[in-house]
Fold Transport permease protein.
Amino acid sequence: MNAAHALADTATLTKRSLAHVLRSPDTIVTTAIMPIAFLLLFVYVFGGAIDVGGARYVDYLLPGILLITVASGVAYTAYRLFLDVQGGLNERFRSMPIARSSVLWAHVLTSLAANVAALVIVTGVALIMGFRTNAGVGAWLAVAGVLLLFTLALTWLAVVSGLAAKSIDGASAFSYPLIFLPFLSSAFVPTEGMPGPVRWFAENQPVTPIVETLRALFAGTAVGSEIWVALGWCVGVLAVSWLAAIAITRRRFG
């Protein structure tokens, strides 16, 4: 089966998957509600008590909130894939002359589209709340690139969960640690004031370098080596998750 056929199959299945999302846009709104609630809570309730070196707290906070938005959104990918698997839809697709990779890629591309919409909503709310940036066009493109790569990595992790889960709750439960991981990073407060072991974990887990990279890009300052650490984490999670998803698919469906 040639590449053109595979791309056509992926496009067709992606349209099907996107149609489900468009028929229930509340999933996108629901994805954005929790990050917006965190944004409101921390800016208006806790922000005045947190010292972030003179910067506006909403500017400091937004990068971490965007990562929480993605972590919340990919849970729906695992949920939708689990329903397809349990309903026997994957077996029916595989009985047709459809590229095997197109089934998973349709879910992945749908996740990217839905998460982009949620990220735009959250960013819009932050702008209303006073978020301001010195980022130029190039920096905004870099922010978009980092967020898309992060979303792609977590989406393939969601695919693994959706394929391997035994229940609906299990399919989406993987996202809970991802949602709360930013709380143990520099997303909400600087790591300097954390106790030793907590600080070590915060500075050596994937969220902190990604947050620091986005924060520098928004501020229009030099990014430094953090961007390479951030990209390394994203690419590493993406590669491992993709390989795991392919292995599970071959084992379950042949």
In short: The first helix runs from residue 3 to 23. The CA atoms of residues 8 and 102 lie 9 Å apart.
